[in-house]
Amino acid sequence: MKKFRALFYCAALLLMVLAVTGCSSGDKEANKEEDTSAVDSETDENSSETDAEDQVEGQSEASKETDNSKQNNSSNDSSSESADDQSNDDLSLNNDNGSKEDGVDLSNYSSEEIEYARVWHQLGPNQQIDTLYVTKIPAGAPINPNHEDVSVTYPEDVVMLKGTRVVDGAVTYSGNGDGTIKVYKVPARWDEKLGTKVDKNDIKKSTEMIAKETKTVTIKPFANEKIVEFIKKIKMN
User: Fold this and answer.
1) At a CB cut-off of 8 Å and minimum separation 6, what does 219 contact?
2) Rounded to an integer, what distance in angstroms lies between the CA atom of residue 87 and that of residue 93?
3) For each successive 10 residues of the chain (237 residues), what is the average pLDDT?
């Protein structure tokens, strides 16, 4: 009977040990599953955050590219406008008739008439003239016609503009065909005293200096009432 009880107690104790061991294993498995779930959840959150950051960076890069594109387009537009403005300025400078600039239409006058009037308007010593005399002088003509034997000659065709009086002055020039002229410093009248001996060497030197020391001047494309006034005063010699 005692042996039976001992065996019964041993079996009961063994069952209790197995039950305790099983509960402990179950708790460990549950803890492992919870840990694994937590790790997976954290991994998913990190992945979501990374995807969100990548999306924000992508949007930022796209915004930068859009801004750069707008800046480039704006720069191109400004360059195009500047080029157009420069082109218009060049056309205005080389426009012989200067039609309707400053509100005056010069299309009824020849390009030569407009040129003479503009040159005198800009360079004429006296703007209050009665007549604007125009003399065309061919290349090879003496600069000082009073002393053809010693005077240096013009190297090109020139035009002389002058008024009725000596005090009106004169402008002698040649056109360059690009809105500029070459001015020769020729006096309206050669100052020579009657009855005095003329130094021909001085005449030669002075005319040589006139031929060499020319000045290039840009003529502004005026188109105003003053230009029309000078055109109406032109008289060809």
Assistant:
1) 115, 118, 119, 122, 179, 180, 181
2) 10
3) 57 63 48 44 46 48 50 48 41 43 83 97 96 98 95 98 96 96 95 74 95 97 94 97
